[in-house]
């Protein structure tokens, strides 16, 4: 297995494992046998396995009929021709809503860094803190996060939820999932009123130091806004993701 294929594999495995722990399940409706679907937040529907003997038109029609309206991520990691499925999605009323960049970091190449002592980063360990985490992350990402999903993850021993505090104010959120030697960073966001203060960099520095001795790889899926920071921290691009959703 080449280094690039391996890098793609560990990134995707971590991401899709998180969605499964959030409640994604297989579906037996026409055209969806190869799909895993979250019927609650984060509302993802993704195809697993090969596109051989796969009907993109039937799948797109079935995806268009789902409620709530799913987000369908298409990634370039599997070296497959995604154009037939993307064309079928567009023909059934889906638009490409937002791109992401899958990125990896070799934690063995990172070094210890001093952290801002005015920023207190604490793990979420109670339902009350989970409610605060949901409020912060929802504000950071500008969409509503399902509290019941986060409460379920709170007791998962491979998942950690984090809040960064400035004084009495919770300013930033993050979620990590460990899958073997890989740790994934998800929902790393800063509330709009706290942006421009370097909090995202401090949160990432904290997470990198926390995991550098227990994991070899750190993976994430960057938005266009977050990608420049991750590049400065040493993350490398692995593949592109295009997220489709029906109008």
Give the helix tally. 7
Largest sheet: 8 strands, mixed
Number of domains: 2
Q: Any low-confidence stretches, pLDDT <50, length ≥5?
A: none
The CATH architecture of the largest domain comes to 3-Layer(aba) Sandwich
Secondary structure tally: strands: 11
Roughly what percent helix?
25-40%
Fourth CATH level, the homologous superfamily of the largest domain: Gcn5-related N-acetyltransferase (GNAT)
Rg computed from alpha carbons, rounded to a whole number of angstroms:
18 Å
Report how far apart the termini are: 39 Å
Compute the average pLDDT: 93
Shape: globular
Strand percentage: 25-35%
CATH topology of the largest domain: Aminopeptidase
CATH class of the largest domain: Alpha Beta
Structural class by SSE content: alpha+beta
Widest sheet: strand order?
Answer: 4-11-5-10-9-8-7-6
- Strand-and-helix sequence, N→C? HEEEHEHEEHHEEEHEHE
Question: What does it look like?
Answer:
By secondary structure, this protein is α+β, with helices and mostly antiparallel strands. The chain has two domains: 3-100; 107-239, 3-Layer(aba) Sandwich (Aminopeptidase). It is 32% helix and 31% strand. It is built from seven helices and eleven strands. It has helices spanning 3-21, 56-64, 83-91, 127-141, 147-153, 199-211, 227-232; strands at residues 25-26, 35-37, 45-47, 71-75, 94-106, 119-123, 159-166, 169-179, 182-190, 217-222, 236-246. It has an eight-stranded mixed sheet with strand order 4-11-5-10-9-8-7-6, with helices on both faces. A three-stranded antiparallel sheet has the order 1-2-3, with no helix packed on it. Strand 7 (159-166) and strand 8 form a beta hairpin. Helix 2 crosses helix 3 (83-91).
């Amino acid at each position: 297995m080449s280094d690039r294929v391996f890098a793609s594999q560990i990134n995707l495995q971590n991401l899709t494992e998180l969605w499964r722990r959030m409640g994604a399940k297989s579906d037996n409706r026409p055209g969806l046998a190869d799909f895993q679907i979250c019927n609650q937040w984060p509302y993802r529907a993704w195809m697993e396995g090969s596109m051989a003997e796969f009907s993109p038109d039937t799948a797109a029609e079935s995806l268009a009929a789902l409620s709530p309206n799913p987000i369908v991520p298409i990634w370039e990691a599997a070296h497959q021709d995604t154009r037939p499925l993307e064309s079928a999605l567009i023909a059934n009323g889906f638009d490409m809503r937002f791109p992401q960049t899958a990125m990896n970091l070799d934690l063995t190449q990172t070094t210890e860094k001093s952290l801002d002592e005015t920023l207190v980063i604490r793990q979420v360990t109670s339902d009350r803190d989970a409610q605060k985490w949901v409020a912060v992350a929802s504000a950071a990402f500008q969409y509503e996060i399902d509290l019941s999903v986060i409460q379920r993850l709170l007791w998962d021993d491979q998942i950690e939820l984090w809040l960064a505090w400035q004084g009495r104010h919770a300013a930033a959120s993050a979620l990590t999932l460990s899958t073997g030697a890989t740790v994934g960073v998800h929902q790393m966001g800063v509330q709009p009123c706290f942006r421009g203060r370097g909090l995202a960099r401090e949160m990432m520095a904290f997470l990198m130091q926390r995991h550098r001795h227990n994991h070899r790889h750190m993976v994430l899926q960057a938005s266009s806004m977050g990608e420049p920071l991750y590049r400065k921290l040493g993350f490398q691009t692995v593949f592109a993701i295009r997220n489709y959703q029906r109008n």
